[in-house]
Write a structure and sequence with these properties.
The structure holds 2 protein chains of 2 kinds. Helices cover 78% and strands 0% of the residues of chain A. Chain A is mainly alpha-helical. In chain B, α7 (171-186) links the parallel β7 (159-163) and β8. Chain B starts with a helix and ends in a 6-residue tail after the last helix. Residues 1-9 of chain B have low confidence and may be disordered. The chains are: A mainly alpha, B alpha/beta.
Amino acid sequence: MQGFASEFNTAIALILNGDPELWAIVLLSLKVSVFAVLISALIGMPVGAALAVSRFPGRRILIVLMNALMGFPPVVVGLLVYLMLSRSGPLGVLELLYTPTAMIIAQVVLVTPIVAALTRQVVEMLAEEYSEQLRSLGVSRLASVPVLLWDARLALVTALLAGFGRAIAEVGAVIIVGGNINHVTRVMTTTIALETSKGNLALALALGAILIGIAVAVNAMVSTLSLRAEREGLRHA
Amino acid sequence: MRDLVSEMARHITVHGVQIARNGTALLDVPHLNLAGPGPTLILGPNGSGKSLLLRCLHGLIAPDKGHVEQDGVPLNSNHKARQAMVFQRPVLLRRSVAANLEFVLKRQGLSRAARKMRIAELLIQGGLEGKARQSARSLSGGEAQRLAILRALALDPDTLFLDEPTSALDPSATQVIERMILRASAEGVRIVMVTHDIGQARRLASDVVMMQGGHVVEHGDARQVMDDPLSEASRRYLAGGLVT
């Protein structure tokens, strides 16, 4: 018990004293996940919005598929990205395996369906409300996409935060494609897994506390924005 | 210039328009000619096809059969660009009051300075000058409908369609909206409005279209239709009886 208390005290000291190794890991985690979410937003938002306003055969199947991808096991995503990026894979020539870029790619694959599916829900609901008014104003279906995305911005930020929450807390995919290499691809979750197995609980505890702090902050932002979006008459269906 | 264009664009004709859903006829109007100066008020009980007819006239709904003409030409995108519509429940963008007006003015290609000036004019016209930066969604029902009408007028339309714009408003808010409608009409905008408020039809209408069961049962001069209706359905509706 005394051992745990001592590890806990060391963990607090690591955080408060600004331990360079700890904060380098935190920074890399944030970089990877922020980049992944930004790329997911660039892909997922237009795709989700296009699905919301368009009507074509097979649309329902695509929506079901996209919703199913939200729950795709991260380890399987890691495996698939690994196969793509490995030396004998189709993208092996790029030599991205065991780099932060590979981790970003894996997180993009995980987060994009979340962003796209939530965007589709939000934009479809808004499109239903705006549809006749926008057509009356002479706004075409295609031209309505940026209008809808802008007006749904509060709910969409919530979708991005949800995606970020998934990315930053993810361990299975990034450990496969990143390799958990010290000072190169070691992020918070993979470090916690490694250091715990080594018995170095102080660093694991310190990173765990920061990760929990980030998760709480993200959830607080999601709640606040959801409340505001609800007041504006728009929330996830 | 708008007056001249408006004079030319006042002729709306319905030719054999039919709409049915699941085998039930919702709208069946063999012929209707809206040629007068307006305001034209479309009157009738719930489910009589008033709003459906209005949407057909504006081109929001394509009829199963028949067509709508404006000035002898089938309704086209040029006509639609000179029309605007205000809905029963105002659909406002989740932006500020001024940004709602800016949205349509920008689409018209007005410069930033011209937009600013026009927004100021419109806000004064609608009594919303102190609320430019306020979120449109936080306006009261009457203010929201005023903004919806101002946004429609910002398009500088020849024809303004209104679908029961005062049905959820109290008498004083209704009075303000009616004044805006009459002013627009006086300025040359052709008004076609749906209502089930007989008093409102008396106050605003130049001509009245009476509807029942998806059919136009009577169309004529407002005073004649309101005081001496020709059809039994109109008589019963105006007398406050149940019309099915």
